[in-house]
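INFO  loader      accepted 1 record
INFO  loader      residues=99
INFO  predictor   begin
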Amino acid sequence: MQKDRAIWQIAGGPTSRSYVSVFLKHGVGLIGPGDAGPWSPDRDTGDYDASALRQFASEARPGDILLLRTGSSRVSAVGIVVGEYLYLPQFDDVNGWPL
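INFO  predictor   done
INFO  writer      dumping tokens
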């Protein structure tokens, strides 16, 4: 068992516009913005509006725990990071959100 696991929370959208079903159907955790393309350490941080993407892509490790949150108070699922950060262009628009 891994002793030093980080716990990450990712948003599954607001309760009025949830995309949790997409996450669960495909077994993914998605973080935006995705419209800037794949993150990499040599890209300008200004290309991404959210520092959460940079932090997750560079710090999350296999074995870390993910909490999938809907709205501000509901945990919809719990998962485990199974691989390194991967940009998947097929999820660049999930219900109008660039993830």
